[in-house]
Description:
alpha+beta; 4-stranded antiparallel sheet; 4 helices
Amino acid sequence: MYEDEETGNQGNEDDKDTNKVSPKQKQKKSKRPTNAQTPNELGAKSTASFFTLFITGQIVSATFPLGPDKDYIFCRYELVAGPDWQLVSGPQYGITQMSTNKTGHFNDKIVFNMPIEVTYKSTSPFGWPQILVSVFGQNQTGNESLVGYAHVYMPIFGGHQQVDEHISSLNQAPILRPKCPNMLGDITSWLLRRQPELKNPKILLDSAQSKGLSMESYGTLEFQLHAVMRGARKLGYNWHA
């Protein structure tokens, strides 16, 4: 019994030794901050530094009052925005399928239904996003040539709602094509069966750069676009529909 008690006491003394904390460990524990903030608390106190713009829609169709001079029509589009805008998701460039209206009337709509779905973020509305479309045509021999250009701003608010079946909910933009500066250019264009093209179509988006250009309307391009914006009010932008 005496030996058991001694061994028992010795075990208790060993436990006390293991529970002792060194002075260095005490200093390390004291250095830990007591008022550390969790990531959720930091996120709640942070303020918004940008707003987002979510665009969905489609390039619906093209209409030519006198009929297109090409057998097949297709479009190449590009999204253009200012330096403060960043494309978060979605393609910046795209091309539609070839379409025609040869099976119907000459001025029937040429349908594309090309979907568009992009997300932007920005700190300023300056340089609001636009979509620039180059319309091309192809004849039976496979030669492609320009038909015209069209551009439209992305909507700020939700978009148009179709109230009546006779009321169009589409945004229409004119299809403009450059004119030859002189008669020699007209003759050359007629012989080559090619329309003059702009070296940089983006100048159409700047009124100062496009000043003096000779353009003619050739048809209309129809868009159906919808927008959802988040975070603009936190930056002081209060837009109302």
